[in-house]
Amino acid sequence: MVQDVDHGIALQMSAISKSFPGVKALDGVNLTVRKGEVHAIVGENGAGKSTLMKILAGFYHPDRGSIEVMGTPIGVMNPREARDLGIGMIYQELNLVPDLTVAENISLGAMPRRGPFVDYRSLAANAKAVLKELDADIDVGTRVGNLSLSQQQLVEIAKVVSRNPSIVVFDEPTSSLGDKETRILFNVIKRMRESGIAILYISHRLQEVMEIGDRVTVLRDGSNIETRDVAGITPDEMVRLMVGRDLTEMFPKLDLSIGDPVLSVTSLGRAHQFEDITLDVRAGEIVGLAGLVGSGRTEVARAIFGLDPAESGEIRVRGKAVRIRSPREGVSAGIALVPEDRKREGIVPDLPVRENFTLPLIGRITRFFLILAGRERATVQAFADRLNLNPPRIERPMGTFSGGNQQKVVLGKWLLAKPEVLILDEPTRGVDVGAKADIHRIIGEFAESGGAVLMISSELSELLAVCDRIFVLHEGSMVAEIPRQSATEESVMRAATGQVYA
User: Is 229 in a helix, a strand, or coil?
Assistant: First the structure.
């Protein structure tokens, strides 16, 4: 640990402006970050946070403004030059190569060599050393594509830490981490801060900002709103500054009439993932599926939808037994899945919003194999307006939208398909407070119309607020069914950690 850290200015971004066709992403933004501090940046999706950080990383060039790193003015730079300046980026959307090993990913772009050949012994040793520092128990020879999402996030962090950066940006780093991994990450960030590294921390989880941050800058609509010491602000004040209004109820829960079972799962099993899973979801009901990372929550959801079919057990939809061996059969049975990883499984980034919306229902907007363009545009535009898509431009490529708006489209395209059962795997992961409220409103409206919702979330506060019942998994087994009136964070965590629920 380094003592007497110099708390001088590490980064100065002044009057940064950036426009894209039809959108002004940043308008004169100023940001000052000191050495040895955690500077949080908060704002709604589309506020300009990621654009500002991509300018810092050299992926975008500002239209106007200046940047100084460690007191030195920086001109136009590319990502490699930014990295050479000691700027490290850890993105919410992972930048790993699935077919390479953990060790190869950690040293990607800076492979140790012995003559003309890669020094694989040094490669493995370097990876083991940095993973040990992160307290991450991951085999460095494992193919990254075989790791869980939380393990991949730790590899992403290790990749940056291994390069001894002076400024590190964490963009929603805990969005796919469990409690244990989050604690490890926070310990790493604290050690970085103590050694004088400047940390920029972007998160929609405001309690994390309160715990780990020293100062916080709020952005709204591409402009600075305020910079404050974290000790002098509350989460409620941050929300008001972010959205420009009070959000009196983040998780609105409608008092709905509960009907007959729509989805019934009995003794569902898949080798080495989960066994003997029995649950039901009724019309007008939102049922939670809770558990720690690795408990089998996502695997159960994927099996019900047909992505990774169950090997035993029975699934019924409105009392009728259905055979689901593929997503096509899942959709035919009236089941829709909003996946955990929207980038890889939920969207086609290069296609416009319009085409992303209509992928699951192409048969409804065609006649004699021709797409009815007018019907398609009118249908999608109406739904985009209902979802508060920002900006509501359905011809823009999906990849140019913020994460929260992408998630709205993933949810909206399945609602357009009019399913009986809606399975949501981390539906608000990496989503800002305003978009989160929109998504919960839409989920509530679907349940109100008689739909059945099965919802996975790592945020217990979210499950407790919106769910009528919560099923809890532990190591692939169903260990508890907790009614709304009895559900507390303590009771859910007790079951999730394998203790007896009472």
Answer: strand
Q: What percent of the chain has pLDDT over 70?
A: 92
Nearest to 381 by CA among 417, 361, 409, 401: 409
DSSP conformational letter for 330 = H
Q: Answer whether 254's CB lies under 8 Å from 466's CB.
A: no
pLDDT band at 210 (very low <50, low <70, confident <90, very high): very high
**∠ CA 366-370-376 to the nearest 5 degrees?**
50
Who wins on pLDDT, 470 or 438? 470
CA trace torsion 176, 178, 181, 184 (10° rounding):
110
Does residue 248 carry a pLDDT above 70?
no
> Cβ distance 84 to 440 under 8 Å?
no
Tokens of 361: 């229902």
What are the distances in angstroms from CA 383 to CA 165, 197, 244, 410? 44, 45, 25, 12
Q: Are 484 and 467 in contact (CB under 8 A)?
A: yes
- Measured from the Cβ of residue 10, the count of other Cβ atoms closer than 10 Å reads 26
CA-to-CA separations, 370 to 51, 182, 375, 381, 482, in angstroms, rounded = 38, 49, 12, 20, 49
Write the DSSP string, 391-440.
S--TTSBGGGS-HHHHHHHHHHHHHHT--SEEEEESTTTT--HHHHHHHH
The CB density around residue 434, as the number of other CB atoms within 10 Å, is 24
| Dihedral of alpha carbons 167, 171, 172, 176, sign | negative
- d(CA 334, CA 312) in angstroms, rounded, equals 20
Contacts of 388 (CB under 8 A, 6+ apart): 408, 435, 438
- Domains in the chain, CATH or no CATH each: 9-243 (3.40.50.300), 247-334+419-502 (3.40.50.300), 349-418 (no CATH)
Contacts 24+ apart (CB under 8 A), 478-485: 478/276, 478/277, 478/278, 478/279, 481/279
pLDDT at 349: 85
Confirm if 155 and 106 have CB atoms less than 8 A apart. Answer: yes
Q: Which residue has the tokens 């490699």?
A: 80
Q: Are 202 and 49 in contact (CB under 8 A)?
A: yes
